[in-house]
Design goal:
This is Hydrolase. It holds the Pfam family Hydrolase_3. It comes from Cohnella kolymensis. This protein folds into two domains: about 150 residues, HAD superfamily/HAD-like (Rossmann fold); about 100 residues, Hypothetical Protein, Haloacid Dehalogenase-like Hydrolase, Chain: A, domain 2. It is built from ten helices and 14 strands. It has about 270 residues and is of the alpha/beta class. The strands form three sheets. The protein has a six-stranded mixed beta sheet with strand order 8-7-6-9-11-10, with helices on both faces. It has a five-stranded parallel beta sheet with strand order 2-1-12-13-14. It has a three-stranded antiparallel beta sheet with strand order 3-4-5, sandwiched between helices.
């Protein structure tokens, strides 16, 4: 019997238009209240952005934010787990981004910092419901606790960036994609799977009691920490191959259908 359900947000819970169907919301409420299951959101989003989705769903459990760099209680603000990028790596990434004229975001103390306001910033902010602060000199943030850094470029550009950054960052940072055009850089111990293990330890739950649903590169480690895994129909092929089951797409209520089948036993 599952005690914990872990859900990715973007391209999993949310449709391409950024919506969650009423039917999905109803099923999530059923498994929380009728089945007494803890629903956890695990996302690359900042905590304050993910918390808005949690409120929409009526989910009150701690949130796994920033790809697992932060696990934080919604009720009292207690931090269960946190890892930040070291200052030397922060400086190195800023230098790299500036040398390539790449668009860079820096997240510190649950604030999104950008160098200037432009179309990419506005598009990202609208997509994630994330407010931002303009700071022209990123070097002012080097000694701040940085949860995550994000490069926003074309997919092939980011693939090249990974090849160029890995030799110098592989000992200190974890690099992953949440979308083809988002490269996220975090502390080397950060991933959704490790954060889930810390949460389960705090909750005294076992891996076998966890069902997880996701769609992208950043969900691969999450799947390794869960007992039963479900890939979205729109997931990357690598995740589908690793999953125990593949549900419908995010535009066809894939999360709802999976929860009905494996938690509510609808259609069995």
């Amino acid at each position: 019997m599952y005690k914990v359900v872990v859900l990715d947000i973007d391209d999993t819970l949310l449709s391409d238009s950024g919506q969650i169907s009423d039917e999905t919301k109803d099923v999530i409420q059923q498994i929380i209240h009728r089945n007494k299951i803890t629903v956890v959101l695990a996302t690359g989003r900042m905590f304050v952005s993910a918390q808005k989705i949690a409120a929409e769903l009526g989910v009150e459990a701690p949130i796994i934010a920033y790809q697992g760099a932060l696990v934080k209680s919604q009720s009292d603000g207690r931090v269960l787990y946190e890892r930040v990028v070291d200052p030397a790596s922060v400086k190195s990434i800023i230098e790299y981004a500036e040398s390539k004229h790449f668009h860079l975001h820096i997240y510190s103390k649950d604030v999104l910092y950008v160098k200037e306001e432009n179309d990419k910033v506005r598009r990202y902010s609208d997509m994630h419901g994330a407010p931002y602060t303009v700071i022209p000199d990123f070097y002012e943030l080097i000694e701040s606790p940085v949860s995550k850094m994000l490069l926003f470029e074309e997919p092939e550009t980011l693939d090249q960036a990974i090849r160029e950054l890995l030799p110098t960052l592989k000992e200190s940072c974890y690099l992953t994609k949440s979308k083809p055009f988002f490269l996220e850089i975090l502390h080397r111990e950060v991933n959704k799977g490790e954060a889930l293990r810390m949460f389960l330890k705090d909750q005294q739950c076992s891996q076998s009691e966890v069902l997880a649903i996701g769609d992208s590169w950043n969900d691969k480690e999450l799947f390794k920490a869960a007992g039963f895994t479900i890939a979205m129909g729109n997931a990357i092929e690598e995740l589908k191959e690793a999953a125990d089951y593949v549900t419908s797409t995010n535009n066809d209520d894939g999360v709802r259908k999976a929860l009905e089948k494996f938690i509510l036993n609808v259609g069995k």
